[in-house]
Design goal:
The chain is an all-beta fold and about 325 residues long. It has 2 domains: about 130 residues, Jelly Rolls; about 160 residues, Jelly Rolls (Sandwich), CATH 2.60.120.200. It starts with 11 loop residues before the first strand and ends with a strand. The N terminus is likely disordered. It comes from Graphocephala atropunctata.
Length: about 325
Amino acid sequence: MPLPPRRYINPFSHQLTCALRPQSDLVVEGIVREKAKSFTVNLVIGRNECPNIAFHFNPRLDQCYVARNTLLGGQWGDEEGCGVFGFPFARGKRFLIEIYLTHSQFLVAVDGVHYCSYAYRTPIENITGIDVSGAVDLTSVYLRTSLVFPSALPPDFPPSPHFIPLNSEGTTEHELQVTPIYGIFQKKLTLNSEIEIIGRIKYLPTSFFVNLQEGKNIYPHPEIPLHISSRFSQTKNFVVLANAWHDKGWGKEEFPNKESPFIPGSEFTLRIVCESEQFIAEVNNQLLLEFNHRVPYTNIDTILIYGDVFVYNIRLNL
């Protein structure tokens, strides 16, 4: 339940009445002030002059950087700063931060999209409070239990550009998109369905992947009947592999017996066809791989594209 509006003052401090546990889900919603430099969400331990901080989430707008850390015994640990996508906050913009607790880590979403994870450095049962401070105006703070992550955004929240509805009648045109991109099918995959992705590899890539999967949640882990990953290295030993996630784990990786067609800086067209016994993937009209079904394809309703690519267009024919 949300806390009473009269308590949404800044700095905001709330003492927990029960211990956090896996499936606890904290939501902080507000607006970044126009002249903001930074703000902070802390999950704290104790209420003395210098409490320990189990999780410190610190967006810095003057650096376009989000710091994460833990403070124990007056000492900060190693700071983490990488995110799944670019800096998600802007001055004057509404935001929604979701911090979800699993058995081993915090999962953080911003505006409905998974942004980062952070492994526990101290038992979560020790967390006693939630503090929010800095250049934001809070509108809502929730602490609830949830079975999935990320949760759906409130109905009045602006739609995320990372989620693209795909129709089943041909082409859906979009401007240049930066990953992650979740293409949401209007109906589930069927036999002889075709998916075409047109894009360009970044100039200094590390990797990218395409998943055909069931649902868009991060937790619990979705079933992934097809995972195609392209990995790059400075030695030009580029690798493409295929796999599937089923029954709580990855299977055996399969490698095409040919050179990778994905070249840094180059455009590509990836076409995937669902046949009765296998997926067939082609790049620029050349066969890339054949991947036998390990998981029923009939539950696929989402395509996830993530990594060092720009996506120009996704075409879907179900």
